[in-house]
Amino acid sequence: MINPQMLKKLQKMQEDLKHAQDEINASTFYGQAGGSVVKVSVKGTKEILGIEIKKNEIDMTDVEMLQDLIKVALNDAFKRVDKEVAETMGSLTQGIRFPGL
Question: Which positions of the chain have pLDDT values less than 50?
């Protein structure tokens, strides 16, 4: 038999998780590489919003280095999104593990 109190707590937790995920998805996260020579911004959904390159601080003819800096900056931003998701969801679930979260 399902405990009505437990069911209410689970429903509240589900609402809180959805609200937190919506807030994260709407947030902007930043990453950088090369001492901020390349900066990127991404949404919590990991959609790329922008890439900023300080042209005067990089050899624009070195395409491989520029590509590497962009990858590092994007990975930095994506790690920040993942960290925020893990911390937020972890605090809401208080250590309870749910498949798919």
Answer: 101
100 — alpha (psi -120 to 50), left (phi > 0) or beta? left
Helix (H) or strand (E) holding 8: helix 4-26
Q: Which domain holds residue 41?
A: 23-90
Please state the length of the chain: 101
Residues 37/69, Cβ–Cβ less than 8 Å: yes
Walk across the sheet containing 28-33 and list its strands: 28-33, 38-43, 48-53
**pLDDT at position 7, please?**
82
What is the reported pTM? 0.81
CATH of the domain at 52: 3.30.1310.10
